[in-house]
Amino acid sequence: MTERDGLGAAALGLRQYLLAVASKLDAPAWFCEVEVPATAYLALEQPLERFPDHETALLWDERDGWAAVVESASGEDVVVLAYLGEDLLPDPCAVAEFVRDLYGGSYPGRPDPPNFRRPGSADGFDERLAAYAGKSICLPEGQA
Q: How far apart are CA 64 and CA 84, in angstroms?
């Protein structure tokens, strides 16, 4: 398994990618872990109508990509509702559409994990992340 430099181009690219997704969703908070396996959490402001008492979020990891989740009844775990399943790094607009469909009452994506890759594989994934490092993100007014 390879290691990922937390200050390198792939790590910066992951942060830039997540910032782009968060800005499309006007998400209030996000967090990522850049080491292998990279993971991310993106909070969504509103609960889903069918789970009104549970926090809703998006999770991302470098094996399965994006998943829509709700907190379990205990609040200690999350329950995966659906995986986007298109690609590990889909266009931020595709992620936003996935979330819109989720809030629209449909069941977008797929129920099972796509298992795109094995984290740490030398398969060009870090280079895909690094490509986002140089992209500037335009944030809505009032966001920093």
A: 9
